[in-house]
């Protein structure tokens, strides 16, 4: 059984409760959140954390973090990810017409 966390402390709470399949359900804003999530995964064998990407800057932040981790010799795990797509209501997400 998996769970969705809306804050980084919730991720830690779920892991401490032995919930190992977690979706961090807010868009990734940058390296600080990814660093925290990576620490949680590394400290907990079997943990899987999925991330939420809602814009090109969020995607670029994940790519930059992965590249920096690899360059430092601390390659991060493969992140499961959900891509939020705006299908016309313009509330949030990547525009459906954005090139891949």
Automatic annotation (TrEMBL):
GO terms of molecular function: D-serine ammonia-lyase activity
One example of a Gene Ontology biological process annotation: D-serine catabolic process
InterPro entries for the chain: D-amino_acid_metab_enzyme, PLP-binding_barrel
Name the record gives this protein: Uncharacterized protein
Organism from which the protein derives: Cryptomonas curvata
Lineage, top ranks: Eukaryota, Cryptophyceae, Cryptomonadales, Cryptomonadaceae, Cryptomonas
